[in-house]
Known about the structure:
By secondary structure, the protein is of the alpha+beta class. The chain has 2 domains: 2-65, no CATH class; 78-167, Immunoglobulins (Immunoglobulin-like, Sandwich), CATH 2.60.40.10. It is 19% helix and 35% strand. It contains 4 helices and 9 strands; from the N terminus they run H-H-H-E-E-H-E-E-E-E-E-E-E. The chain has helices at 2-8, 13-17, 23-27, 51-65, and strands spanning 35-37, 43-46, 78-79, 91-97, 103-110, 116-125, 129-135, 148-156, 159-167. The protein has a 4-stranded antiparallel β-sheet with strand order 6-5-8-9, with no helix packed on it.
Amino acid sequence: MNIFATNSGVSYPILMFGGANGILTDYNCPYDYLFVIGGDGIILWRGNYDDAAIRAAIDDGLAALASPAPPAVLAGHRLLPGYPNPFNPVVRIPYELDGAGPVSVRLEVLDLRGRRVRTLVAGIESGGGIREAVWDGADEAGVRQPSGTYLVNLAAGGVTFQRTVTLVK
Length: 169
């Protein structure tokens, strides 16, 4: 513990010196190096020298710090880059669905505040292959939108993808 404190600058004085009675009495452990302490200062393990137990306590502490794995993305569902980009007057937006059968698909154009400008695709599509939607820069009512960056949002089979396209006039 003293070497750790010297090398890292981190110390837990309660263990370095024990309480009024010392480490052996307060923690029933003869040496300060027989402790594994988490980053929050909580004792994760204490005891006699047992390499396997010490490693297990360290591994458990590190596992708790690991971030959860990102959700698996189905290999075939993906939103490809729109082209041409920037565009005027139309942009082609290709997307691919895996071949696992029918899938619920929703392809929308949103403004940068997340408001829906236009729904390009909504429904059930058979899986497999690349498809393409075309956006003419207009909203649902046919009103041409101003120049700017727009989000293209694809939701397919419970997975969501997003890309940007830029309309220039």
